[in-house]
Every structure is written in structure tokens, then in C-alpha cells.
Design goal:
single chain, NE0471 N-terminal domain-like, 2 domains, 3-stranded antiparallel beta sheet, 8 strands, 44% helix
Length: 143
Amino acid sequence: MIGKIVSVAVSGDKRLEVSWDDGLVAPVDFSDVIAAHKALAPLKKKDEFARVKLSRDKWSLEWPCGVDFGAHQLRRWADEQAGEAMRVADFRAWMEAHGLTQGAAAQALGLSRRMIAYYLSGEKVIPKTVLLATEGWAGRVEA
């Protein structure tokens, strides 16, 4: 289970260093998410981004402009950016590149179709084992 956030520090342009109560300290780069969502436009300003604060309950980070992100989402981004989890867009691109339906992807990876649907919806984190399996499967098919 993802725990609470214990500290946050600005570590660069659109980048934070986040510490969780399980001991993980990881960078989280917000560049892509800010660029992709108009509602996050206030965070494009360096001074506004730097105003990040830990929420009172320590389950999220928040900014005075009204933007906030929960501990679970932040951990997901940290894991994806560190290569410890696969991004949904990358999983979808793997399926499309190989012309795979959800059923075919499930069969290729030895997973249930339901789990593939969870991954595609973003409801479940795509673990590193699946990331590595997609790379191995792609290499095997292309060989």
C-alpha cells in the first residue's frame, strides 16, 4: 500500500523530490503532465510551481492555485519515470504496434483479458514484470 508523503522539495524546473513514509525518496517530473493539461497552466510559472506544500493529512501535495495530486498518483509517476512501472501510453503503443487486441495481448503475456483492460484504463499500475515481458515479446516477434 502506498503510504503518506513525509516531505517535498523543488529540485528543478517542474521537478520535485518526494519522500514517502516507507522510506522511498524519488524525483517526480511534472513537465509532461503540465504540458498536457490546460487546467495545470498555473504550474507553468516557476514561482507558482515552487509554492507546493504538503497537505495537512500528508496524503497529497497542493498548490495555492487549487491544483493537488495524491500520494498514489505521485508514486505511480515516480515509478514510471524510474522504469519500475510501465506507462499506459507505452502499453497501448506496444499493443498497437503489434496489432494486438486485448485478448491477444492477454494471451501473449499470460494474463487475463480483464487485467489488460485494467492496465489500459489506468485502474491498475502496469508492473515492471509486464514492461519487461512486452519488451521480450516484441524482441522475440521481431527476431
